[in-house]
Write a structure and sequence with these properties.
The chain is about 45% helix and about 15% strand. By secondary structure, the chain is an alpha/beta fold. The strands form three sheets. A six-stranded mixed β-sheet has the order 3-4-12-9-10-11, with helices on both faces. Helix 5 runs parallel beside helix 6 and helix 12 packs parallel to helix 14. It is globular. The protein binds pyridoxal-5'-phosphate.
Length: about 450
């Protein structure tokens, strides 16, 4: 398995190079030269395979021999070492809870897989003079997952830039209390300032001379591809619940709260490789470039606007080009495979309140965007299916609950009128002291700090 650049101006590379460099020299995203195809017999076997073995079988073709089987098995086992339960919210809408990892967000899976791959490659590296340095800007969730995923990984340093005062208390503790090979820079500015500094760093000759810089966002194949696993785990639970004696089960439609579109794109890859999934719905907040594109065939990017589901405040989703590649850049194939709805902040908050009251389930703002989109989608499906057979089973959907509500206490506690309990798994953070390095929001200050260290 090789990877080509969607920019089409760079040579193909193997998994190792794609994972270490993140992006192709022509700034294109890497994409696998072929999408692995699972046979019907394999899919049948996947129904009951344990999570670790399933993860290994799904990831192995993508790694293309760059990691030996025993090590890859170990990496997979560590990556998915927590629960991914599919729980009912209403009769027809289920929540795939992806927040049972160490930092309470779905990004743990990608970050853990990527960190362990880079750790493996760095041990092989003969030239130890340049440390691999992961540089990442975060609006909250990415930084915590990356810090936790890379903590203690030998040969890799992590530098996180986060906007001062703009991440929630739990998120800040997750970023700033790791120590060891993790450094948190508290930037006196916005998330966009952090991201601008990181972008400039990747183009800075002197800095790249001193460090092996790599990024840890979902453009990196080692972070993006393992996200397919959620869909396999959800499908296993769906089949277990709904499969009849003939082996039939209703379609599992999937609603994904989307920002950079890495997560949903991974799901569409899983489907393209043979996993029998239903329709995909991209649930967006006010940042609706894809929603509008599907309606108008016009791709118009705007600067990101701030919303209560801030992990999805993305003006120009980087992974959308990969979705187009999966669907052969064909607009009618795209609209056949994908729908999208944009949900505003008022509806998001009202949804959190309503679902808490009527269904006794606490959504986080991102899950609430997905839930509201799922309701619209299912209502439209019902209209399409009214005269179809009364037994029609095509009326259920799952939403991906991408973060624990405690990560967004201000919005959620106001919406439900109660305090959210801090889960036992992160209680220990509350006793830790924050350690961060304050930094002015400009590149000169950042570079000065980097060249001194
Ligand atoms: C990152 C994130 C998203 C968006 O995921 P993408 O892969 O960028 O589309 C949604 N919800 C939460 C909680 C996140 O942290």
């Amino acid at each position: 398995m090789q990877y080509y650049s969607l920019g089409k101006q760079s040579p193909n590379v193997n998994f190792k190079t794609a994972a270490i460099t993140g992006q192709a020299p022509d700034k294109g995203l890497y994409f696998p030269t072929e999408i692995p195809q699972f046979t019907a017999a394999q899919i049948e076997r996947f129904k009951t395979l344990d999570k670790g073995s399933l993860a290994f079988e799904v990831m192995k073709p993508y790694v293309g021999g760059m990691i030996d089987d025993a090590s890859l098995q170990q990496i997979c086992a560590e990556t998915i070492h927590f629960e991914f339960p599919l729980v009912p919210i209403t009769e027809n809408i289920f929540s795939l809870e992806l927040f049972h990892g160490p930092t309470l967000a779905f990004k743990d899976v990608g970050a853990r897989f990527m960190s362990r791959c880079l750790g493996y490659f760095s041990i092989q590296e003969k030239d130890k003079s340049k440390l691999t340095t992961v540089l990442v800007a975060t609006s909250g969730d990415t930084g915590g997952a990356v810090a936790n995923g890379f903590l203690g990984v030998e040969g890799v340093n992590v530098i996180i830039l986060y906007p001062k005062g703009k991440v929630s208390p739990i998120q800040e503790l997750q970023l700033t209390t790791c120590g060891q090979n993790i450094t948190a820079l508290e930037v006196d500015g916005s998330f966009d300032d952090c991201q601008a500094i990181v972008k400039e760093a990747f183009m800075d000759g002197a800095l790249n001379e001193k460090y092996n810089l790599t990024s840890a966002n979902s453009i990196n194949v080692a972070r993006w591809l393992p996200q397919q696993l959620y869909y396999f785990f959800a499908w296993q639970q769906w089949v277990k619940q709904y499969q009849d004696a003939e082996g039939n089960y209703p379609a599992m439609h999937i609603v994904v709260p989307s920002g950079n579109f890495g997560n949903i794109c991974a799901g569409m890859m899983a489907k393209a490789s043979g996993l029998p999934l239903g329709h995909f719905v991209a649930a967006c907040n006010a940042n609706d470039v894809v929603t509008r594109y599907l309606a108008t065939e016009k791709y118009e990017i705007h600067p990101a606007v701030a919303t209560v589901s801030n992990a999805m405040d993305v003006g120009n989703p980087s992974n959308f080009v990969r979705i187009m590649e999966i669907l052969q850049n064909n607009f009618s194939q795209l609209t056949h495979a994908l729908s999208s709805y944009s949900i505003n902040d008022a509806t998001t908050k009202a949804t959190i309140t309503r679902v808490f009251k009527t269904d006794n389930y606490t959504l986080d703002p991102h899950g609430a965007v997905a839930f509201a989109a799922a309701e619209i989608f299912l209502a439209q499906e019902a209209k399409v299916n009214t005269n179809a057979n009364a037994q029609n089973n095509n009326h259920r959907a799952i939403i991906l609950e991408t973060a624990h509500p405690v990560k967004f206490p201000e919005v959620v506690e106001e919406a439900i009128g109660e305090k959210i309990e801090v889960p036992a798994s992160v209680q220990f953070l509350l006793d830790k002291a924050k350690v961060s390095i304050p930094l002015a929001a400009n590149y000169t200050a950042f570079k000065h700090w980097m060249m001194q260290n």
